[in-house]
């Protein structure tokens, strides 16, 4: 039987980097306009977490990270992979673009 090699998980046990932190430090709920996903809303952001250090707050809607639109549930994993080793993150929150240096994040370890 031929073995098929599976890619490693993007954000899960044993994965390091900011992407894994971002997906585990808050409740992330898809937001829809009609049937189209337009971003995610954040809640229960843990104080001191990377999301908190990025200046995000409960109720914020994130629609884009590093140029990737959050328009599909699978986009979260793609984004986690894209930002895990990023030096800077560009993020659109509540319709406003921001750029954040990951050096601001105390426990960021790529």
Q: Which properties best describe this structure?
A:
alpha+beta; 6 strands; single chain; 110 residues; globular
Q: Can you lay out the helices and strands and say which pair or pack?
A:
Blueprint: H1 18-24, E1 27-33, E2 36-43, H2 50-53, E3 61-65, E4 68-69, H3 75-83, E5 88-93, E6 96-101
Antiparallel strand pairs: 1-2, 2-3, 3-4, 3-5, 5-6
In short:
The protein has 110 residues and is α+β, with helices and mostly antiparallel strands. The protein has helices spanning 18-24, 50-53, 75-83; strands at 27-33, 36-43, 61-65, 68-69, 88-93, 96-101.
How would the global form be characterised? globular
Round the mean pLDDT to the nearest integer and report it.
75
H/I helix tally: 3
The quaternary state of the protein chains shown equals single chain
Structural commentary:
By secondary structure, the protein is an alpha+beta fold. The chain is built from three helices and six strands, in the order αββαββαββ. Strands 1, 2, 3, 4, 5 and 6 form a six-stranded antiparallel β-sheet that branches. The radius of gyration is 14 Å and the shape is globular. The termini are far apart.
